[in-house]
Recover the amino acids of this structure.
């Protein structure tokens, strides 16, 4: 076991608790946008994929990395786009309904 | 070491802080857009920072892949709201694919010197990533109705599925001690991919909200594990947040259906239907025409609409909004009671109604709705079925016994818009339809609501 692994474990547990507390407060109204947004945030794996695709390595790892970049980035772009579309639709009574 | 070397880390820390704020601001519709913006800025900071990573020696493929990703992502971000569940399943698949491929690339990169701990992390990451990838594809196929919605089951299914998973674990154990066997690694990936298919295929349409949430948490935990493999804390945090979110939603969905995780994953729901349908003898229902229904609605002070996925299938949400407007204009208090599993993913019904411009302060949760039903004049059920079945409260033999329901039967009058008397997802008769206070309005949801709107607005406008 390495010290890096232990420090990652600390981060994981703390982030898990932060996530739990923050997400528990999300209104059930917004659970679909929540899933779309966390998908987009999770697409941060794109940064790891970029390094695999662009670093000194074999053609195989560069190819796998490039596919991973495309897959993750499509989530990032699509996830933010659809989350924004969804949350913009939520309006209160008597507001924004006059618009065409 | 100079401070400059740590600049990327500072940038990633800023990104993480923005991610947490992003979720924090998503807590209410009023701040949600700010939340999306915070997430976007955080993601942009992280991606731009990565371009300056000294390990990078070539950028061509990165740029091409980013462009390709954007080309796939933009159309997937523009799908209609009814298609959001399958889009979400697709994005789980992409997320799992990316994480699994990175794990595979790392394995080949590090050969032949992989420590037992590294191999454990990589194996776990690749197994969960691979099974989430194919599992999500199957879920997307079911939601898109390319694959059958009904649970596909056969004798000894659970044993077959668990043996396949067991094989993947055995291969992983062999690799931990003998990481050089690249063939076993490949086999482990294939077996995990097969397990993902076996895992989701037997699950029926009614359980999709739970499955999609579970896959969400798997994908999150895969990303966190990848963070362990690569020692990248930004991935550990983002993965933990995503995993926690998926987990919370899974728990909410399971509770809303009164089921356990194991029951969802290993006990196909459709199996139980046979016993109950036989018991129901010929009973009479009262049916009403839209004209008769409109006359009752006009006299009401309060109306609670209970929308189900059938409403969305019939594309009736915009007509329902017109109906809401017509009643509101007459001074009638109209609210929408939303069951947690209404729709095909958590919160789906709210999005569908918000898209039709129904104000979100009119959408109320199950507990609040249930405390209001006894004072409601008319409860109008549109395209919902099992979530309104009073049998869940008292019939111990019913497969849905114990499931929290919307207690529409406590309203003074119940109206149900339905195509015919066919049972719902769970294949169970709904005794609500046979109550004396219940009026059935038979027909397609969209056209029935359309006629109600005409009755309420047309002709005798004051």
């Amino acid at each position: 076991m390495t010290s890096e692994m232990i420090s990652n474990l600390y981060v994981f547990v703390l982030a898990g608790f932060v996530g739990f507390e923050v997400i528990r407060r999300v209104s059930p109204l917004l659970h679909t946008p929540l899933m779309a947004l966390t998908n987009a945030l999770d697409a941060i794996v794109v940064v790891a994929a970029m390094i695999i695709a662009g670093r000194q390595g074999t053609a195989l790892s560069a190819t796998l990395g490039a596919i991973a970049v495309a897959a993750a980035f499509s989530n990032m772009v699509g996830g933010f786009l659809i989350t924004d579309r969804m949350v913009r639709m939520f309006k209160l009574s008597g507001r924004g309904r006059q618009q065409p | 070491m100079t401070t400059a070397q740590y600049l990327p880390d500072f940038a990633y820390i800023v990104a993480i802080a923005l991610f947490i704020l992003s979720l924090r601001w998503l807590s209410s519709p009023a701040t949600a857009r700010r939340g999306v913006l915070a997430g976007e800025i955080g993601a942009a900071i992280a991606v731009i920072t990565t371009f300056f990573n000294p390990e990078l020696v070539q950028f061509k493929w990165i740029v091409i892949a980013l462009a390709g990703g954007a080309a796939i992502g933009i159309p997937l971000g523009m799908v209609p709201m009814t298609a959001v569940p399958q889009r979400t399943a697709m994005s789980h698949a992409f997320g799992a694919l990316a994480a699994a491929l990175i794990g595979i690339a790392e394995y080949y990169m590090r050969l032949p010197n992989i420590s037992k701990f590294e191999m454990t992390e990589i194996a776990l990451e690749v197994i969960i990533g691979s099974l989430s990838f194919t599992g999500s594809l199957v879920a997307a196929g079911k939601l898109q109705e390319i694959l059958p919605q009904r649970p596909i089951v056969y004798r000894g299914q659970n044993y077959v599925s668990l043996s396949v998973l067991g094989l993947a674990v055995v291969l992983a154990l062999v690799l931990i001690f003998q990481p050089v066997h690249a063939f076993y690694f490949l086999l482990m990936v294939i077996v995990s991919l097969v397990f993902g298919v076996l895992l989701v295929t037997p699950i029926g349409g009614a359980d999709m909200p739970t499955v999609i949430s579970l896959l969400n948490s798997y994908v999150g935990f895969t990303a966190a594990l990848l963070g362990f493999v690569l020692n990248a804390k930004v991935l550990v945090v983002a993965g933990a947040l995503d995993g926690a979110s998926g987990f919370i939603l899974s728990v909410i969905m399971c509770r809303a259906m009164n089921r356990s995780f194991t029951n969802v994953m290993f006990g196909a729901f459709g199996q139980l239907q046979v016993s109950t349908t036989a018991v129901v003898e010929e009973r009479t229902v009262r049916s009403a025409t839209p004209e008769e229904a409109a006359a009752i609605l006009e006299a009401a002070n309060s109306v609670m609409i209970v929308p189900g996925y059938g409403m969305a299938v019939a594309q009736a949400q915009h007509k329902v909004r017109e109906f809401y407007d017509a009643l509101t204009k007459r001074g009638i208090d109209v609210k929408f009671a939303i069951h947690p599993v209404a729709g095909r993913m958590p919160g789906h019904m709210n999005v569908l109604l918000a898209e039709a411009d129904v104000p979100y302060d009119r959408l109320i949760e199950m507990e609040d709705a249930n405390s209001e039903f006894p004072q409601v004049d008319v409860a109008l059920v549109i395209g919902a079925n099992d979530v309104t079945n009073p049998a869940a409260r008292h019939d111990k033999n019913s497969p849905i016994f114990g499931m929290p329901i919307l207690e529409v039967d406590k309203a003074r009058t119940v109206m149900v818009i339905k195509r015919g008397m066919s049972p719902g997802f769970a294949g169970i008769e709904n005794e609500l339809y046979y109550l004396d206070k219940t009026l059935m309005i038979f027909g397609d949801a969209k056209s029935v609501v359309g006629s109600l709107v005409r009755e309420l607005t047309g002709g005798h406008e004051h």
Q: What stands out?
A: Residues 98-267 of chain B form one domain. The CA atoms of residues 290 and 452 of chain B lie 6 Å apart. The first helix of chain B runs from residue 7 to 25.
